[in-house]
Amino acid sequence: MNAVLNTPPARTTAEWQAADSAHYLHPFTDFKGLANKGSRVITKADNIYLWDSEGKKILDAMSGLWCVNVGYGRQELVDAATRQLQELPFYNSFFQTATPPAIELAELLAEVTPRQFQHVFYSGSGSEGNDTVVRMVRRYWDVLGQPQRKVIISRKNAYHGSTMAGASLGGMSGMHEQGGLPIPDIVHIEQPFWFELGRDLSRDAFGLKAAGWLEAKILELGADRVAAFIGEPIQGAGGVIVPPDTYWPEIQRICDKYGILLVSDEVITGFGRTGQWFGCERMGSKPDLMTFAKGVTSGYIPLGGVMVGERIARVLIDQGGEFNHGYTYSGHPVACAVAIANIRLIQREGLVERVREDVGPYLAQRFAEFAGHPLVGEVQTCGLMGALQLVKDKASGASFDGALEVGMVCRGHCFGNGLIMRAVGDRMIIAPPLVITRAQIDEMAGLIRRCLDLTLADVKARGWM
Questions:
Q1: What string of H, E and C letters represents the secondary structure of 241-297?
Q2: R_g (Cα) of the chain, nearest Å
């Protein structure tokens, strides 16, 4: 007998908001503030657009949360999930067991990642992937008879997830204050943020100086205690901070000099975002470990993992014994099936090349036009990532008082005008789906211009400028 599907009655926005407030605790949220305001309820999506419960169309310039690389509504990914759900909806990777999608995806990841990567360890998210990095890095040095090499160096304002280890690796002070973080043997150096820390130098000179902070920290700690350095090729949640060209090659040289493992967190920059398959290829580094998530399935279903370079894999395989680490959903067959379909779609449509040769350069061209706006002190882009630094005074680069939250004022105008653009302090950032067209970039640029103008009028009316 066929089941009868009863479609629940439609709710009003107020009804959705009331139920949300009564039961749903959102991530990174002031629960009381949201309960008073009411959440935005998104009901459908297609291509690069969303619609809310009021029927308002919104251009999603953040790809969901940096992840919907191939855009919304791709039937190929829905079909891949459906087929796998019908055939084998779940089995685990424990007990010396594997499933065909997990194996096939491992082969495909070895094909599209840099040559040093032939092995993958699956997780359910980027946060779990970075927890795996901590465990794997320390296990590697244990097996080599150097258990004292436990310290992992990261950067201030970095984001590596929200789990205990992931948040510790990240350099966000607000996260550290809630939970007694970081955990032991994780330390931080300054970020390569030229506009904030290095405008007295050329960008190239500052890049070398910023990389030098890693060597200084290694010498301070003792190289025989340092296990690894982790960094995002481009700091994403920290504000789309694109480092100078000199930065990553010098980081690589320093890691090689002291024999330290290099970890590239590609959760945001992977799968075509920068115009290369992975950000490390764009930035000129050769990591030993590479965390991924988000774009591997274009966010259609959760999946993450760590690509493990042969330097580490051979030690763990040939000498390591049992690695006491893993997750229930490591290599989930449905997630892996969707990832395979997603990567094949990226290959088939040439999206990486398209970002590198067409829409990425066009985004840079359109963003450069904002440099003349009275509120904008710096413009940065890389591939399909972009940032606008809002300033009080263009000539001096002086910032607004942080308590004014000018970035949030601008974000409010964005939401009010059908645009999702993220505020990181007073830095406005975007990372649209890789399928965005030139005409849609023009549409997005027009919306950004309107919101900048509205913000400028706001701050002048309030006497802040």
A1: ECCCCCHHHHHHHHHHHHCCEEEEECCCCCCCCCCCCCHHHHHCCCCCEEEECHHHC
A2: 23
What pLDDT shows up at residue 10? Answer: 85
Specify whether the CB–CB gap between 445 and 373 falls below 8 A. no
Between CA 405 and CA 411 the distance in angstroms is 10
- Are 260 and 251 in contact, with CB atoms under 8 Å apart? no
Tokens of 57: 């169309």
* pTM for the structure as a whole: 0.95
CB 25 within 8 A of CB 31: yes
Amino acid making up residue 112: V
Per-residue pLDDT, 9: 65
One-letter amino acid identity for 177? E
**Packing angle of the helix pair 203-221, 247-258 (nearest 10 deg):** 20
pLDDT single digits (tens) 68-106: 999 999 999 999 999 999 999 999 999 999 999 999 999
Amino acid sitting at position 171: G
pLDDT at 3: 45
What is the structure's pLDDT at 126? Answer: 97
User: CB under 8 Å to 244, separation ≥6 — which residues?
Assistant: 192, 194, 203, 204, 206, 207, 210
Are the beta carbons of 343 and 352 closer than 8 angstroms? no
Residues of the chain scoring pLDDT < 70: 1-9
Q: How far is CA 194 from CA 355, 401, 425, 426, in A?
A: 25, 20, 16, 15
Q: Centre a 10 Å sphere on the Cβ of residue 365 and count the other Cβ atoms it contains.
A: 13
Query: Are 29 and 391 a contacting pair, CB within 8 Å?
Result: no
- Pair of tokens at residue 75: 């039937």
